[in-house]
Design brief:
Shape: globular
Helix content: 25-40%
Order of helices and strands: EHEEHHEHEHHE
Strand content: 15-25%
Structural class: alpha/beta
Radius of gyration: 15 Å
Number of strands: 6
Strand order of the largest sheet: 1-6-5-4-2-3
């Protein structure tokens, strides 16, 4: 069973790749469903795709993170992987690469969009998601669990600042759902990080 979504914003504080065109090149019809179909199977399929993007990022020499964004009609409008190493850009996280791809759509369009990501957005990415106006975030692996893989690896100096706290500090609500138990979400990190 998946966790309940939470709407987080200023009034409800809660404790606690390249830059190509917006449309992905492959057939993603299996991932296209109306936003009203918020079933566990649909959520799982989109998160599995995010994990596949993370695996592709790792294969291409980048950090193992992937994300995609779905519009109000349920269509995947963009996908991104991490590009920190290949672009030599420390801000090349999957979620920020997505924001760069879809930011031109503006907050009105993005308010009804959902971002699915293999791992909970870090504080930097949560800020970018917030500023872009994206209305909903769904993630597989929690940042608090990611740190058990990354340890003190200098390639991922994790902040102990959950995305829920970042979103709660904002003046508009962002719905967040996760962590979700997704096959492969942990595996993509196995052996990548020097957890020492």
């Amino acid at each position: 069973m998946f966790p309940q979504s939470q709407r987080i914003g200023h009034s409800e504080r809660t404790p606690g790749a390249g830059r190509a065109a917006c449309r992905p090149s492959q057939n993603l019809s299996a991932y296209r469903r109306p936003m009203t179909d918020d079933s566990d199977a649909r959520t799982e399929a989109l998160l599995v795709r995010a994990v596949q993007l993370a695996a592709a990022s790792r294969t291409s020499g980048n950090h193992p993170f992937g994300a995609l964004i779905v519009d109000a009609a349920g269509e995947v409008i963009a996908e991104a992987g991490n590009s920190v190493e290949t672009d030599r850009d420390p801000t090349g996280h999957a979620e920020l690469n997505l924001v760069r791809k879809v930011g031109h759509l503006g907050p009105e369009a993005l308010r009804s969009a959902t971002l699915y990501t293999s791992t909970e957005p870090c504080a930097m990415c949560a800020g970018g998601i917030y500023w872009a106006g994206i209305g909903r975030v769904v993630y597989a692996l929690a940042e608090s669990e990611l740190i058990t893989y990354t340890g003190s690896d200098p390639r991922n100096p994790t902040l102990a600042l959950p995305s829920r706290q970042v979103f709660a500090a904002g003046s508009r609500p962002v719905e967040i759902s996760g962590p979700h138990e997704i096959a492969g979400a942990r595996d993509v990190h196995e052996g990548f990080w020097g957890a020492g």
